[in-house]
Amino acid sequence: MPPSSLKAMVSCVDEVEYPKHTFLFNEGHKAHICYFIKSGIIRAYSRMDDKEITFWIGIEGDTVLPLPMLISGNAEFCNLELLEQSVLFQLPIDKLHKLYSTDIHISNWGRRYAEISCVQAEKIFIARQFKTAEERYEELLCHCPKILQRVPLGVVASYLGISQTSLSRIRAKIVL
């Protein structure tokens, strides 16, 4: 993004700090703010029966866009919860839409973010369908060890699509 576009975007952003367990988005409600994670960890999850299914974990440097609201004005299909005290940069969606309409570089950034999100979702879906639980754990260990150090094991197990007991067995096997 050219410096002038970045400057325009930054001028619309505020830094905020929230405690652990704050919900940024709630399932069934419209979200009106985008976030950029300066410090902290966020998880996205949905409830099924009495279980919480974590399908995304965000860390420093990640962007959190409420895509249903941003794209079509719809309510969120998931909850976003802070797993640590976090410092975020927030950008109201109405301001982001104005930036999209006035700056092609920011508009292209938003399109690119949506494309990357689709690819990441597809990778997660394919991994859950075709990789073993051990392979998914090893991939997480290799690509994002911070998550394993900072996120509760129950959340990690849910993210990997396995039980906490299975995760414990996999971890014990890999340590040996």
Defining key terms:
single chain; 176 residues; 8 helices; 50% helix
Secondary-structure map:
Elements: H1 3-10, E1 14-18, E2 23-25, E3 33-39, E4 42-48, E5 51-58, E6 63-64, H2 67-72, E7 79-82, E8 86-92, H3 93-102, H4 104-130, H5 133-143, H6 145-150, H7 153-160, H8 164-175
Antiparallel strand pairs: 1-8, 2-7, 3-6, 3-8, 4-5, 4-7
Helix pairs in contact: 3-4
> Helices and strands: which structural class?
alpha+beta
Strand content: 15-25%
**Major β-sheet strand ordering:** 1-8-3-6
Would you count the extended β strands for me? Answer: 8
* Oligomeric grouping of the chains: single chain
Output the radius of gyration: 17 Å
Largest sheet: 4 strands, antiparallel
Helix content range = 40-55%
Task: Explain what this protein looks like in three dimensions.
The protein contains 8 helices and 8 strands, in the order αββββββαββαααααα. By secondary structure, it is of the alpha+beta class. The protein has a 4-stranded antiparallel beta sheet with strand order 1-8-3-6. Strands 2-7-4-5 form a 4-stranded antiparallel beta sheet. Strand 4 (42-48) and strand 5 form a beta hairpin. Helix 3 crosses helix 4. The longest helix is centred in the middle third of the chain and has 27 residues, at 104-130. The mean pLDDT is 90.
